[in-house]
Recover the amino acids of this structure.
């Protein structure tokens, strides 16, 4: 499976893609983000927050592992597990995955074993200074539908 590919040419375009995705997410949605430092994982998460109607600025939770944002359509649970000392450690992630909000996990491969089976995996690749390739790999029917909708939107909007 080669996934669903999207190209963005600026942080703004990445944010717009994330806003459109956020509009299709619901309670218990889980989205993982992989990509090098500076790829745009946090930038993408800012767009998710915006799409959920969260006004507070999202920044990288690198030193806190998890930050919660309320006041939007759903709570946003933003995890960055980059600095997790021991990937086997159970910090109660499951409660968030199954919670009432949308969970975004940066560097999710570090807690692979703890991720829910149904989720949307995103890989962000640097193509140039401001060019990124964002590939969506859906796990589960619901996420396949979401990817199809995003692709349909893309092909009708330009
Ligand atoms: P990560 O969380 O993956 O380490 P960040 O989102 O913190 O990365 O940083 C991404 C950086 O790259 C930001 O400074 C952002 O402005 C810049 N950038 C340039 N082009 C893009 C793009 N197309 N999409 C996302 N970010 C971009
Ligand atoms: Mg980050």
């Amino acid at each position: 499976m080669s996934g669903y590919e999207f190209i963005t040419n600026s942080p703004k375009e990445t944010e717009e893609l994330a806003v459109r995705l956020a509009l299709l997410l619901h309670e218990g949605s889980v989205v993982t983000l992989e990509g090098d430092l500076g790829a745009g994982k946090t930038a993408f998460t800012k767009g998710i927050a915006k799409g959920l109607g969260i006004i507070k600025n999202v920044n990288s939770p690198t030193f806190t592992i998890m930050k919660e944002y309320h006041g939007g359509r759903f709570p946003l649970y933003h995890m960055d597990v980059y600095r997790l000392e021991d990937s086997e450690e159970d910090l109660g992630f499951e409660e968030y995955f199954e919670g009432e909000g949308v969970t975004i996990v940066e560097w999710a491969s570090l807690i692979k074993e703890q991720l829910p089976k149904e989720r949307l995996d995103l890989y962000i690749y640097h193509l140039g200074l401001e060019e990124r390739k964002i590939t969506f790999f859906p796990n589960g029917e619901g996420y396949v539908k979401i990817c199809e909708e995003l692709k349909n939107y893309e092909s009708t909007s330009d």
Remarks:
- Residues 141-157 form the longest helix (17 residues).
